[in-house]
Amino acid sequence: MNKQNNNLDEKELLKRVEDLIDGKTNNQKLINSFLGFCSRLFSVRPKTDEDFQLSLRRELLKKHPAYFEKEVGSHSDNKIQNLIITIKEFMTMKKTKRFASIGIPATLVIAVVMIFTSVINPAIQTAKAMEIVANDPQVRSVIEEYNFNVQEVVIKNDTAYIILDTVDSSSVIVTVDLNNGTVGKIVKENGDGTKVEAFEEKAAAMGLTVEELKADMIEQYEVKAESIGMTVEEFKNYLIEQKKVESEAFEKKAGANGMTVKEFKLYLIKQYEAKADSMGMTIEEFQIYLKEQKKTDYEEFKLKAEEMGMTEAEYKTYLENQKR
Amino acid sequence: MGKENSQNERVLVEKAKKDPDAFSELYDLYFRKIFRYVSWRTGSRVDAEDLVSDIFTKALNKINSFKWQKGATFSSWIFRIAHNTIVDYYRTKHKRDYINIDDLPEIEADEILPDENLDRRQLFKKLFQMIQELSDRQAEVITMRFFTGMKNKEIAKVLKIEEKSVSSSLCRGLQTLHNKFNKQ
Asked: Quick one: A106 and A164 in the same domain?
């Protein structure tokens, strides 16, 4: 080898390279520049694109012979065959049996209608209410303030009551008008049964009136909008657009993985649970841990922006440009 | 690969012949390794994605003909397909003189710092150009040994050469790369 390595023979050096690749070494790479170079080369690992991985997997699975048999063969042919058998059976039935066979499907249709009105329709309304709430900055602020979780959603005469609860046995009820798509009262129910408007409590704690608090929140919203060079209206639209993009990206990801959005959500929840489990935490502990991490990251981001003499928005743009 | 892992993989491969889910598992096991190897051999993210797609399609089409023979592993089988695909690729395409930075693959990192990411891609570009100047065998051996997790014995099987040749190609190739890297 070259002069720098004259203290090591070729065989020994190669063994060290092998150890380095197999992860059996940590400090040896510092011994000479050759191992240092190998270590550097080893660290340059091309990153895989997750979306590409998922979409290719989906394409491949569709080409798998067993998938083809399962999906195409069994579906169309079997469906036609089953239908022919059913018609034949029906024609050979006695009259009473025929009536019975019509009566059962009719009952099923009624049951489906009842399920729609009692289960599916409320589910749609619940989803609508959750969307309205998720887009409301005031509710968001309350949820973040008290670390709430959604406990129950009750639908009554085009009004949704979203019940949020905390670990300290207090709960907040958010009223949503489903016709207008607006958030109404936000009431906090304490553990002792007393009720208070959530903003009243927060305002009192801050030494403000409810009106002052609301004005303060709107101001914060305006400051945030201004910090990224937008008007409040633009900022609002931007948030809505972001939400749309996020949900579209999610749908796309679910599709690429050959799943419906619901299936994909369940899959992610399972992964989330597994991650929490692997770290020896309960879901709640894991959530707190992630929240703390997010806070720390944000603090670091703020600090870095300050160090560089930039606003957060400027620093964000700077990072994005650097990435490009 | 340990004895137990090898046995598990054997079961998985047999299952994958009939079951799409098992194939999917196998795909996840090898996707990253194949992608890294192909990225290093092509230096282009777009071409790497095309070739990775080809490689797995070939593997899927041929998986029923894969048989466990003495010393043969699924890893050496799929990397043989990957190697042949790369050989075909360079039959129709000249080695790159010009490398488009936008088409370079992203490089893995623990920290997500964009400026460092740019540096890493520049480093990849520099190293890729130097690897391109090595002999085909040296380039193959280095990328396989460094980025696929294969041992020299397996690489020898993929490239159908002696294990000793793998070691010497690795050593000489690295030495040349190191010298070039120091000169720049």
From this structure: yes
User: Which of A21, A29, A31, A41 would you mutate first to test chain B, the one with the most B CBs within 10 A?
Assistant: A41
* Four-way CATH pick for B3-183: 3.40.190.150, 1.10.1740.10, 1.10.260.40, 3.40.50.300: 1.10.1740.10
Looking at the predicted structure, is the pLDDT value of residue B21 above 80?
yes
Q: Which of A282-286, A304-308, B59-63 has the lowest mean pLDDT?
A: A282-286
pLDDT tens track for A211-225:
777 677 777 767 777
pTM, to two decimals = 0.49
A47 with B107: Cβ contact below 8 A: yes
Among A19-23, A192-196, A242-246, A262-266, the least confident range? A192-196
Residue B154, min C-alpha distance to chain A (Å): 14
Number of domains, chain A: 3
Other CB atoms within 10 A of residue B71 CB: 9
- Give the start-end residues of each E strand in B51-116: none
- Beta carbons of A44 and B53 less than 8 Å apart: no
**Cα-based angle A44, A46, A49 (whole degrees, multiple of 5):** 155
Q: Which residues pair with A197 in a beta bridge?
A: A187
Phi and psi at residue A81, to the nearest 5°: -60, -45
